[in-house]
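Onboarding guide, step 5: your first structure request.
Type a short instruction followed by the sequence, for example:

Predict the 3D structure of this protein.
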Amino acid sequence: MLGSTVIEINGVFLGAAILVSESGARRFYAAHDSVRALHNELLPDLVALQQRIRLHVRRPAYQLV
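The system replies with structure tokens like these:
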């Protein structure tokens, strides 16, 4: 693990984006049930990962508590 970034929305800790390569690829470590389906998802960079998480959380089935 080269480094990680905390991922949170509205002060709710969802997990961490773990840097897995020097190219910027990130793997998501889910710590909140609302994003459990995204655990270990690999995306090319932090921005793409953050967008993926935001879109997932905005679905009506999930509410952050």
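Each response can be followed by summary notes, for example: The chain has a mean pLDDT of 88.
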